[in-house]
Amino acid sequence: MEPSEIILYAGLLPGAIVGVGLLCAWLTWRAIEKRRTAGPRPHALGPIWVLPILLGLALIPIDLARDPRVQVWPKETTERFPHIIVAACLFALIDTAVRAPLWLSAILRIPLFGAVSWAILEPLPRTGDASPGGFWLLIAGLGAALAAVSIAIDASARRVPTWITALILLVAIAPIAPVVLSDFPPDAPRPAFSLSPAHFAQGAFQAGALIAALGAVALAHPLCRALRVDRALAVPTIALAAAILCAARWFGGSWAGAGWTPGLPIPALALFLLAPAAAAVPALPGIRRRGPMIRLGLGALFAAICAGLGTWLAHESIPARPPPGDDPYADFYDDP
Amino acid sequence: MRFRTLSLSLSTLGVPALALAGWAAMSANTAAPRPDLASAGTYSVDPVHSGVFFQIKHAGVTNFYGRFNTFSGSFSFDPAAPEDGSFSFTVDAASVDTGAEGRDNHLRTPDFFNVRQFPEISFQSTSVTPSQEEGAYRIEGDLTLHGVTKPVTADMMWLGTGEFRNAPIGAFEATFRIKRSDFDMTKYMAEDLSDSGGLGNNVTLYVSVEARKE
After folding, report:
1. Which stretches in chain B have pLDDT values below 70?
2. Domain count, chain A
3. Which ipTM value was assigned to this complex?
4. Boundaries of domain holding B63
5. Contact B108/A199, CB-based, under 8 Å?
6. pTM of the model
7. Residue in A2, A67, A77 nearest the CB of B187
């Protein structure tokens, strides 16, 4: 892809769709509410249901720009990002519309995130990365862990201004793009840009679109202050971030030196998946009554520590280059 | 005088004796069974003297070349009865080599070959037929690439037989012309599936094989 296309589809377009879409929906909703005889409802959440739709529209174009084919169910699991985005956004749409009790939503999120994990990691028993039993344990564990992180965000999102939630998520998610994009080994003659061994450009572009969407939510919020993003933002964000990270861990990597080095070490993956939970920090007792900047700062600090540690661990896992002097003809000379 | 005569006699005798010894040694060498240079037989690919290369358009203009360093295969072939021939080839997709380590790692990820999910590229022939040109044949078979199996046709030139390290060898070159879109490898390709995108759709695979007769 040309750099201009990447900037357009992984930055400007998703940001514009979410930002402009949210403002338009908000202004339309306000106009309709004002026509009511009783005026706007004081505790109304606004057109929150529109956000999952906008996220779906914003996150898929980069995938279509990279590969214009639309496949019902691709054999290559890393081609299933659009399917994951649609499933997560649909879940969020229904969740915002129905607003079932949070505990029920939490239970339903476990199979959703399990399915997201399965959709990406399906080949692991074949690649030898996991036994069949271990694989299903991994899927169940990821399902439960991702559900817990998303519930933590949503449980606090109603008590935290949307721009704070969005900015903390931005701090947590933003490092994913450069980390999974990681390019040259540190001792390469070209300028080093090695944050991990992943080499997964597709994931970086997808993460770029997510970052742009989160930024747009944060920027749009001051103009529609009553809008709260609980139930609308967490599930699509966590689902897509987890899909990118899992794909980078198990299908990206480096093949320099002794065989395959995973794109991300497991501790780094866990830290990146935990980082979005920082959005719950501003709602913690003792913090929730503080000023908005302190709440933002503490949440962003937690996110930055998780993502920073994850980045450092990923960088440390970059394999050293094989020593020079390996003779590829050694077998030939030994051959009688 | 006697001594000189003896020396002369010895040297006169010595030269033919050395020659005789040398001839005997050579005879012993040529007396070893000579390799069977007839084409018919089963061969296994010698990876040290064979190569798998690919060519693809870059930016709609350049012919870009790369190779795969690890492969194996076998074939049975007799130019007198080509229809009985059979070719089987397996390439380790992770061995892709374009001369740039960072790019090679990128090529191995899901952005291109996705070698963790699809580690092998393989070909199994289904028929071999002679072409018009002397020594040329058409090999039809199933190519599995990126997890997708499609029937393809290769143009093969039988280069003949020979001998290397006292072992009979056979050699051929085959050219596969495929579209990577047929194998679900459409990333960084023009929307019209032409060669005008960042990376073209048409890929030419060159397989040059030296194989030892079994």
Report:
1. 1-39
2. 1
3. 0.82
4. 42-213
5. yes
6. 0.85
7. A67
